[in-house]
Hints:
The chain is an alpha/beta fold. The chain has helices at 27-48, 81-106, 124-127, 153-156, 158-165, 199-213, and strands at 5-8, 54-58, 111-115, 174-179, 184-189. The protein has a 5-stranded mixed β-sheet, with helices on both faces.
Amino acid sequence: MPVDVLINNAGVMAPPTRMTTADGFELQFGSNFLGPFALTMRLLPLVLAAPEPRVVTMSSGVASYGRIRFDDLEWKRRYSANLAYAQSKLADLMMTLHLAELAVQNRWNLTSNGAHPGFTRTNLQTAGASLGRATPKRTPFNASFNPLPSQDVEQGTEPLLYAASDPGAVNGGYYGPSRWFGLVGPTTTVRPPRRARDAATAARLWREAERLTGVALPAGAARLTRTDS
């Protein structure tokens, strides 16, 4: 059965101490990036069997200060909850753009694009920070007063829905809120941060994800589907 749209939107944010997935990966890198990567690779034949398929991956505005730490991707040394999260969301965006480039190279009729929700009020910001604690941790995101503008879930989901369904969303596109430096507002096209556009680093990260997960592009992927030249 073809898969018309694959949406990668799983996530955990800023656990207070370093935790791991069942497979032993650092929790944020594993849940936010390696899991969606492996799922996308395994489903790719079904995705490419659809007439006009899309793979949409949720990133975050914090990707702008993320760095891919190849010397310690899983934060085994000097764990930083926020920087590990930023790395995982930068990795999501790099995966998005690299898959978009592969679609062009292989002439797949595939749209790979991404989105970020700005500052949307959900339990993401508090649930992760409360992992391992008996009571929820108070953070700037659940404090009674926060000077930053924020928005409800309905508005925050718009960039993701636009990327997944709007005819105007393009391969390699990135979408997010349009106001207050990308924190709130109607959806607009966003320029990915410079590090996300580093093609050599993205290719290296892709190879490392293949090694860590044991999942790669299906054999003969270049021949799975092609648009007419």
